[in-house]
UniProtKB/TrEMBL annotation, chain A:
Metal-binding is among the record's keywords: no
Positions of transmembrane segments: 79-98, 118-143, 169-190, 210-230, 242-264, 286-306
Protein name as catalogued: Uncharacterized protein
Lineage: Bacteria, Bacillati, Actinomycetota, Actinomycetes, Micromonosporales
Pfam short name (any one): HAAS
Organism field: Plantactinospora alkalitolerans
Record flagged with keyword Ligase: no
TrEMBL record, chain B:
Gene3D superfamilies: Winged helix-like DNA-binding domain superfamily/Winged helix DNA-binding domain
Lineage, highest ranks first: Bacteria, Bacillati, Actinomycetota, Actinomycetes, Micromonosporales
InterPro entries, alphabetized: Metal_resp_DNA-bind_regulator, Tscrpt_reg_PadR_N, WH-like_DNA-bd_sf, WH_DNA-bd_sf
Protein name (Swiss-Prot/TrEMBL): Helix-turn-helix transcriptional regulator
SUPFAM superfamilies for this protein: Winged helix' DNA-binding domain
Domain Transcription regulator PadR N-terminal as annotated: residue spans: 27-91
Length: 317, 113
């Protein structure tokens, strides 16, 4: 016998509590037959009646879950907020840190180029993020199913996050940042005429390749000027916002990427400057200096961006 | 204009608890699943079968209903009846239902003034 009712019962029973499965089976079959009989008694065709009754009872798994008083959710309201908070907290810094460490160490071993190192770092960060999300969710899904509601610690007013009354941007830090930027803006042209490094004949040697004046140096100067404007705007706003962070990242990249690329392709420093210092010419010392500079640039940029993101996180934590 | 969906959700919420009260009242006279469903429907409690059958089991596990198999008829049927414990719970639920009605009335009349 393989009627629709048989199939319906077979689909319902496996997930019903086993202790009373037999009893539930007999009762449910009886109820279904009662319902069908009632309809055929009113002149309905038995096949149609059976279909209608089973449709009314609905998805057998849902019915079984009601019998078992089982929760039809992965993570319910008891744990959802804790899960979300933990997930956000972990994702906000762990993947970035592990990714950065990975990128720096693969750049340091020198087996891959800087591009490859950054790619490897991003890949690792994504992998770590997926792992965190999966294992955390799995843990909570198991908690949801095994532990009867246990004390998570009731919420109390002391947990309210402090609303920042102090400005995140102090005048001192803004002034320092602007001063450094102005120094950088002044130094770029200055080193061309007066670097205090002289050739044997006493002529001034520029540190940065003069060829760049017709290509990248104006761009870098513009980025530095832009950064001064940005610092002032940031101070006026008084706190980190997502748009500010976006502009900050763009400015950082606009400066760090060309510089890293130029130094890695041996185009940043002027040939005379390299000639003047024997140590730079020895072995691969120039390459090492380039690599270290690029990594330091990357770390500084990532650190600064993370710092600003943390400021926002603190506010919303 | 509030959508029908919103109204339906609120009505469902309002009715949810009353199914237990209605079942406990109705089962002062023993009955089996489908017959109870029809009786409740006749008295204006339109309960879904897939809600009522598991509910009866749960009330039985909580000791508010007792059950007995009747094998005299064409097919075996499980008859439920409100237990003494169920009766005492039911009284408190009915009191509360009445209290809600009084509160709502009081509030409505208070608003008119």
């Amino acid at each position: 016998m393989n009627s629709l009712t048989d199939r319906y019962l077979a689909a319902t029973l496996p997930s019903v509590p086993s202790a009373r499965r037999e009893e539930i089976a007999v009762e449910l079959r009886g109820s279904i037959e009662d319902m069908i009989e009632d309809r055929t008694g009113n002149g309905q065709d038995p096949g149609t009646a059976e279909r209608e009754v089973l449709t009314e009872l609905g998805n057998p798994e849902r019915l079984a879950a009601r019998y078992a008083d089982r929760r039809l959710q992965l993570i319910g309201p008891t744990y959802y907020l804790v899960w979300l908070r933990l997930l956000r907290l972990l994702l906000s810094f762990v993947p970035a840190i592990v990714g950065t460490v990975d990128a720096v160490s693969s750049a340091a071993t020198g087996e891959v180029g800087v591009g490859g190192a950054i790619g490897s770092g991003i890949g690792t960060a994504i992998e770590v993020a997926v792992h965190i999300a999966f294992w955390l969710t799995l843990t909570f899904a198991i908690l949801e199913r095994t532990t009867p509601v246990q004390g998570l610690g009731d919420w109390n007013v002391d947990q309210l996050p402090r609303v920042p009354v102090d400005r995140e941007m102090s005048l001192a830090s803004t002034a320092t940042a602007v001063a450094w930027l102005l120094f950088g803006i002044a130094y770029l042209p200055l080193q061309h005429f007066q670097s205090w490094i002289e050739s044997d004949s006493g002529a001034n040697i520029p540190i940065i390749d003069p060829a760049l004046w017709s290509s990248w140096l104006p761009v870098l100067l513009a980025v530095l000027v832009g950064s001064v404007v940005f610092e002032i705007v940031k101070y006026r706003v008084g706190r980190w916002t997502w748009p500010l962070i976006g502009v900050n990242v763009a400015l950082h990249l606009a400066f760090a990427v060309p510089v890293a690329w130029l130094i890695l392709s041996d185009r940043l420093l002027s040939p005379e400057f390299v000639q003047r210092f024997e140590w730079l010419r020895e072995g691969d010392n120039l390459g090492t200096v380039a690599n270290v500079t690029a990594v330091v640039l990357a770390v500084v940029v990532i650190w600064d961006v993370l710092d600003s993101v943390r400021a926002i996180r603190r506010r919303h934590a | 204009m509030v959508s029908d969906d919103i109204l339906r959700t609120h009505l469902q919420e309002l009715r949810r608890g009353t199914v237990v009260v209605a079942s406990l009242v109705a089962l002062r006279r023993p009955d089996y699943g489908y017959a109870l469903l029809q009786r409740l429907a006749k008295h204006g409690f339109a309960v879904d079968a897939n809600t009522l059958y598991p509910l009866l089991r749960r009330l039985e596990e909580q000791g508010l209903l007792t059950s007995e198999w009747n094998t005299e008829e064409s097919r075996p049927r499980k008859f439920y009846r409100t237990s003494d414990e169920g009766e005492s719970i039911l009284r408190q639920l009915l009191d509360d239902l009445a209290a809600i009605q009084i509160s709502v009335t009081g509030l409505t009349e208070g608003m008119d003034r």
